[in-house]
Amino acid sequence: LSGLRRSLIPGLCDTASRNARRGLGPLAFFEIGSVFGVDGHGAYSERNAIGGLVCGGIVHPSWHRVTGDVAPFYVGKGLVERLLAQWRLTGEFERSSDSRLHPLRQAGVCVNGVRLGLVGELDPEWQERLHLRERCAVFEMQAEPLRAAASARERQSVGLSRFPSVVRDL
After folding, report:
1. What is the rounded CA–CA span in Å between residue 138 and residue 80?
2. For 105-146, what is each residue's pLDDT tens digit?
3. Closest among 111, 113, 117 to 140, alpha carbons compared
4. β-pair partners for 65
5. How far apart are alpha carbons 123 and 13 in whole angstroms?
């Protein structure tokens, strides 16, 4: 690439577009990586970010499961809430205005009063340019403040189950 990326969202969208053009779906991706920006003093800064994209249903259709049409915004918001819960954090959501996202289906993600990122549904024009037939939800959050907030809390690990999951019991 010719420049430093300012967000993980364009890369996630490009990956979704390539897979959708090949007829794959439903799609779900995540990425943890560096993004760059300009701080208040005009100097470049590097930070780690966590991003994700979900396009289409998050549950594969099956003979024993009905898949409803869940709004992508709520799927993305649920993923963010689940991610925060894994770190034993509680997030608040506030109004946001990102041009890449649907104007009425987006929110800023805050933890302890600090805005860490955003979640929302991709703007329909973006989806059309990317050749995505299904509505998509994306999120991106700063990783370092999450890590700092979570390290202030006691961590608890849980062992793996001895029994593997069963998809269909005959």
Report:
1. 10
2. 999 999 888 899 999 999 999 889 988 888 899 999 999 888
3. 117
4. 62
5. 12
Buried b (16+ CB within 10 A) or exposed e, 147-166: eebbeeeeeeeeeeeeeeee
User: Minimal CA–CA distance to 108: which of 122, 124, 119?
Assistant: 119
Strand order in the sheet with 91-94: 27-38, 44-55, 136-142, 114-122, 101-111, 91-94
Q: Are 96 and 82 in contact (CB under 8 A)?
A: no
Tokens of 11: 């890369």
How far is 141 from 50, CA to CA, in rounded Å?
5
pTM of the predicted model, to two decimals? 0.79
